[in-house]
Amino acid sequence: MTGGLSVRDLSFHYGQKCALDAVSLDVAPGRFCALLGPNGAGKSTLVSLLTRLLVAPEGDIHIAGHDLRTAPRKALAALGVVFQQPTLDLNLTVRQNLGYFAALHGLPRGEVPGRIDAALGRLDMRARADEKARALNGGHRRRMELARALLHEPKVLLLDEPTVGLDAAARAAITAHVHDLAEQGLCVLWTTHLTDEVRDSDALLVLHRGQILHAGITGEIRGDAPLSDWFLAQTGAAA
Ligand SMILES: Nc1ncnc2c1ncn2[C@@H]1O[C@H](COP(=O)(O)OP(=O)(O)OP(=O)(O)O)[C@@H](O)[C@H]1O
Prior knowledge:
Blueprint: E1 5-14, E2 17-27, E3 32-36, H1 43-50, E4 58-63, E5 66-67, H2 72-77, E6 79-82, H3 94-104, H4 112-122, H5 138-150, E7 156-160, H6 168-183, E8 187-192, E9 203-208, E10 211-217, H7 218-222, H8 227-235
Parallel strand pairs: 3-8, 3-9, 6-7, 7-8
Antiparallel strand pairs: 1-2, 1-4, 4-5, 9-10
Helix pairs in contact: 3-5, 4-5, 5-6
The protein binds adenosine-5'-triphosphate.
Adenosine-5'-triphosphate (ATP) binds at residues 14, 17, 19, 37, 39-45, 193.
């Protein structure tokens, strides 16, 4: 798959402990794919491998057609990431935080202000550009991290449990924003253990004990059962 995300036979062990066991998955451009897994399923390990914080001895990862093992710079240039833990400098303004990230990515200086305005505009955050990050509530800080992840116009967006710590309204807003981004053509992989963040039309991967138990379209996979009940039955985990 050239434009999206492709993983083949990815395995990873921490010492004797197997965290991922021959995981394969594909996410196409324009797709919102929820990676649903209970605590300890292996979600964070997969995210670490996709972002190259960890390197897998076995398996292949392609991001927008680039092999992460043999062409890591091209692959990572096509990837936007929102990590589970906030990674903002609270003493800088929104614009300064994004500007710092743009410099790290080596974006052409002349393009940076326009890109920042566009990214913030997409998330209804333009009016907050010159406020300190510290002044933003949790939901707006997350939006800012999402805007930052989009600055370099990635083809694939990876979000690791991005709604942790947010209230219900902020959770719904960020979930809706990212679904919109997928509808506009982005390839999205969204890890979560919360079934209410997943729509019937989304692609779904269920990860359990390091293995993909199910892959398909959510509404088709869950049948007539509510997704939370179905997920509980599959994994023994409450959503
Ligand atoms: N550094 C480590 N050393 C040993 N085992 C680890 C380490 N990190 C994770 N594990 C184990 O690997 C498995 C997968 O963990 P991982 O953190 O990837 O799961 P997760 O789905 O992200 O869980 P959570 O939702 O709790 O963050 C678990 O059994 C975990 O205990």
